Amino acid sequence: MSTAADRTATGDLVERFGLKALVEACLVLEEGVASLKDIEIGMMMGAGILPGPFARADQRGLDEVLEALERARSEWGESFEPPLILRRLVAQGRLGVKTGQGFFPYPKPDPDGSRETVALETRGDIAIVWLNRPPTNALSPQMVRELAELWQELDGKVRAVVFASSSIFTFSAGADIKEFTRMSPEKEGRELLESAHGFMRAMERSSTVTIAAVNSIALGGGCELAMACDFRIAAESAIFGQPEINLGIVPGFGGTQRLPRLVGEGKALEMNLVGDPIGAYEAHRFGLVSQVVPDHELLDTALSWARKLSEQAPIAIREIKSRSHQGDLDAGLRLEAEGFAIAFGSEDAKEGIGAFLGKRRPSFRGR
Hints:
Elements lengths: L3 H27 L5 H10 L7 H8 L1 H15 L7 H8 L26 E6 L2 E6 L9 H14 L5 E6 L4 E3 L4 H5 L3 H21 L3 E6 L2 E3 L1 H8 L2 E5 L3 E3 L13 H9 L1 H10 L3 E2 H6 L5 E3 L4 H13 L3 H10 L5 H16 L2 H11 L10
Parallel strand pairs: 2-3, 3-5, 4-6, 5-7, 6-8, 7-10
Antiparallel strand pairs: 1-2, 8-9
Helix pairs in contact: 6-8, 9-10, 10-11, 14-15
C-alpha cells in the first residue's frame, strides 16, 4: 500500500520528467533540428508520450508551465531553465488552450459558429474558418456544402477570412473518396463540383480577402481549396500535392486550372501527372506559397496578413481580384480601365488620396 510520501515522490518524478521533456523539445525546436510538428509526432510515436510535450503544455497553460519550470530550476538545477520560446509565447499572451493559441492554435468558435465539419470564429473584421473534421479534414460533400453556405454569410460582411485547420496532422487530405463513390457522376457528382466551383470563384471575385493557413498536409481538394484563396501561408512542415492521378482520376476542384496559373505550366503538369507532393519551401520557390514560417508562428502570421489586408479599400480589392488573370492582354487592359474608373470614383478613393496628402492613415468603408 503506497504512502502519501510515495505518492508525493511519484508526482515529483512525473513532473520532473514532463518538464524536462518539454525543455528538450523546445531546445530541439530552437536549434532548428526538427519542426514543431515532427517533434510532437516523434515524441508521441517514438517515446509514447501522449499527448506530446507541446500539446500537454498547451493544455496545462504555458504561464503555469513557465512558473513550474522556474521553481524546478531553483530546486533541480539550471537544466530546467525555461526555454526562450516558452518565455516569448507567454509574453505574447499565447498561453495555450485557454487563450486559443500556444504552441498550437485552438478554435474558439462563435456561440452559433459550430457546424458538423467546420467552425466559424470572428475577430472583428476578420473571420477564421476552421476545417474541423479530424483527423484528415476530408472534403466530404457535407463539408463542401457547409463551406459554401458559410462563405455566403461572410462574403462582403468581413474584410478578411483565414482558412485554418483544427488538426495538427492535416490541413485537408483531399476529397472523401468513399463518399464520392456513392454519388452518381452525372447528377450528384456534377452538382457537388458546381457548388465547389461556385463558392471558390465567388471567393476570388469578392472584396473579402482570403488566406489559407496551411499547417500540414494539403492534398487534392485540400490543395485546391488553398489555391482558391488569395494567399497561402505555409508552416515549415506543410506539403502540397495533387495525387488524383494515382487513383486514375482528375482534379475536380480547380487543380488543372489554378495550379498552372500559380506555378507555371511545366511544374503544374508534373504535379498533376506524377502525383508526388512538394514541401513548403519548394512550393514557395514555385510561387504556390506566399510565405513559409515556423509551425508555431503560422496562425499569428496569417492573422497579421489578414489585419493588414483588412485595412485596404474593399472596392479596390474587389476590382483588382475580379479583373486579374485575363487570358487576352487587350481584353484585360480594357477590364482594368473599367475597374480603375469604378474604384477612382468611390468614396474610398477620395479618402485614400486625402489621407495620403494629409499624411494620415486612411479609413476605408467600402463605399
